[in-house]
Specification:
CATH class of the domain at 74-231: Alpha Beta
Pfam families: Peptidase_S28 (PF05577)
Family: Belongs to the peptidase S28 family.
GO molecular function: dipeptidyl-peptidase activity; serine-type exopeptidase activity
Largest sheet: 8 strands, mixed
CATH topology of the domain at 74-231: Rossmann fold
Shape: globular
Number of strands: 12
Radius of gyration: 24 Å
Bound molecules: 2-acetamido-2-deoxy-beta-D-glucopyranose
Protein name: Peptidase S28
Structural class: alpha/beta
Keywords: Glycoprotein, Hydrolase, Protease, Signal
Length: about 550
């Protein structure tokens, strides 16, 4: 999930800058918990036809490099509304299938990966060398990637108005999956591989990980097994723990620089005559609102989530940012060992500002890596200002961010704020309040004729399905130790501990960030030890589940 402010630019840029540029779905792939916090950059990028700068920032983008001919698209017809007769409209839901390891007549299993809040195309690597391929190979099963309604090409409506989005909710999309599992008929297969006749194993990462867990609870008759990886089964309106996880997991030096720099910046923003020179240092003198300024400062923190064990897909930007903050001026290396704010680390600047050199480095980094992406013919207010409602009125289908943010505003929350309590240190400005982070919900989704977005999301809809304690036989919970989404999973420090068993696997991958098990290499023996280990464990419990199936134990 992005800090909400950053999606604003997305709209700005795509609406004002690139009216005639073809939307690049790849750049806008990661809307939800999957996402890196670099939206506004994505947006600017989107507005510039020839540039691959942002491509490095996102694991999912690079992973999307599987050639499309490897897997062909298939389509399944779904009712737009599963629960009411108000509309009889239908739409086509896209999926892909991997039958490399399937032995006809063997009766399954089917391993289905829920595409979640992005184009299913971004998930194809998981069908090719990732978790779906790994489990299909281990079980002689069929692998599927199933695209989620309102994402990729599975778009059931003509625009993303508030009314058109009203069929985008957890209940409808879970029912899509259930309907698919009960009825799908695979091209070229005479065999009936539908559930519950055939065992289905439902996999998801992140938002889709929560969906996997929910499917096991809601449809135990057709979901034989489920694996929730980084599954955010706990929805929370104010999700300050996202940034706090990064604060605690970063190196002590980096964390110290971040906490102290932000503290300095917050203090200076409170001093009328110093505020302007400070913003100018970041190249943001023209940005009207301090909150928009503060919000831009968290942009590099998004690269934490973009880390991956596989250097082919992971970003190294977070560490580069930390290194940039720590770099002493004029090569005075000894300064690095002195505490933040030490007299000899202070730099005197125009406008009466005197700051630790880390603050200066922060400013330089933002200027060069964030502000620089704002095209020369636009003001920084045009690019990064979020208080003008007009910027969010375009409801056309290329405004892909509208789908996930609608889910955030109605059912999921996760507004990434500073800690609500002053007693916690913070790596993001205390100006990033719930009010600021959630204002997009009223700005972008005015009341429709048929649907009104609530003042705050109703997270009970998610949490009543089990929350931190969600559990069932053959529901596996897999999380990453330093994943900023971990506090929203059953591995949260707020959750009770559980045993890890074959029937109810409960595994935390050391040093891992977001759904690290979803990625895999063609030969898993070449994977780093921790990843090979989790894959071997997953193979073992899924094989055990399959033995249960064949023994008639369900
Ligand atoms: C959005 O699409 C619906 C049909 O799905 C249509 O009735 C409505 O007029 C559209 N809204 C706008 C503003 O174009
Ligand atoms: C929130 O969702 C729960 C669970 O579906 C429901 O019982 C409750 O009425 C909802 N609250 C509001 C204010 O709509």
């Amino acid at each position: 999930m992005l800090p909400l402010a950053s999606l604003l630019l997305l709209v700005v840029a795509s609406g004002l800058l690139s009216a005639n540029a073809a939307p690049n779905r790849k750049l806008l792939h990661s809307m939800g918990p999957q996402g890196v916090n670099l939206w506004r950059l994505d947006a600017i990028q989107k507005s510039r036809p020839v540039s691959g700068l942002m491509v490095q920032d996102s694991p999912e983008i690079e992973m999307g490099a599987v050639s499309e001919s490897d897997f062909r698209e298939h389509w399944f017809t779904q009712p737009l509304d599963h629960f009411s007769k108000d509309t009889t409209d239908t739409f086509k839901q896209r999926y892909w299938i991997n039958t490399r390891h399937y032995k006809p007549g063997s009766g399954g299993p089917v391993i289905v990966l829920d595409g979640g809040e992005t184009s299913g195309e971004d998930r194809l690597p998981f069908l090719d060398t990732g978790i779906v391929e790994i489990l299909a190979k281990a079980t002689g099963g069929v692998g599927i990637v199933l695209e989620h309604r309102y994402y990729g090409e599975s778009i059931p409506v003509a625009n993303f108005s508030t009314d058109s989005l009203r069929w985008l909710n957890n209940a409808q999309s879970a029912e899509d999956s259930a309907n698919f599992m009960r009825k799908v008929k695979f091209d070229g297969f005479d065999e009936d591989l539908t559930a519950p006749k055939t065992p289905w194993i439902y996999y998801g990462g992140s938002y889709a990980g929560a969906r996997a867990a929910h499917m096991k609870i809601l449809y135990p008759d057709i979901v034989f097994g489920a694996i929730a990886s980084s599954g955010v089964t706990h929805a929370q309106i104010q999700y300050w723990e996202y940034m706090d996880t990064i604060r605690r997991a970063a190196t002590p030096e980096c964390s110290d620089h971040l906490v102290n720099s932000i503290n300095t910046i917050d203090t200076i923003l409170g001093i009328r005559k110093l505020k302007k020179p400070l913003k100018a240092l970041f190249g943001l003198a023209g940005l009207k609102h301090d909150q928009d300024f503060a919000s831009l400062l968290e942009t590099p923190l998004g690269s934490w989530q973009a880390k991956n064990w596989d250097p082919e897909v992971g970003s190294t930007k977070f560490d580069e940012f930390c290194e940039a903050l720590a770099k002493p001026p004029f090569g005075h290396h000894a300064l690095r060992d002195l505490p933040f704010g030490d007299d000899s680390r202070m730099v005197r600047l125009p406008g009466g500002l005197t700051v630790d050199f880390a603050v200066l480095n922060y400013a330089k980094y933002i200027k060069e890596n964030v502000v620089s992406r704002c095209p020369g013919d636009m003001s920084v207010e045009d690019c990064f200002g979020t208080f003008d409602d007009e910027k969010f009125q375009d409801i056309s289908l290329d405004q892909e961010w509208r789908a996930w943010i609608f889910q955030v505003c109605t059912e999921w929350g996760y507004f990434q704020t500073a800690p609500p309590d002053q007693k916690y240190p913070t790596i993001v400005s205390r100006l990033l309040t719930l009010e600021y982070e959630s204002k997009i919900c009223t700005q972008a989704y005015p009341p429709g004729e048929h649907f009104v977005v609530p003042l705050m999301p109703n997270v009970t809809i998610v949490n009543e399905l089990g929350d931190f304690d969600i559990a069932a036989d053959r529901l596996a919970i897999i999380d990453g130790e330093v994943d900023p989404w971990r506090p929203a999973t059953p591995h949260s420090e707020y959750a009770s501990d559980r045993e890890d068993t074959l029937l109810r696997p409960f595994k935390l991958i050391p040093n891992a960030v977001h759904h690290y098990d979803e990625y895999g290499l063609a030969d898993i023996q070449n994977e780093p030890a921790e990843i090979l280990k989790i894959h071997e464990e997953m193979i073992a419990f899924v094989q055990e589940w399959m033995e249960d199936w064949h023994a008639g134990r369900r």
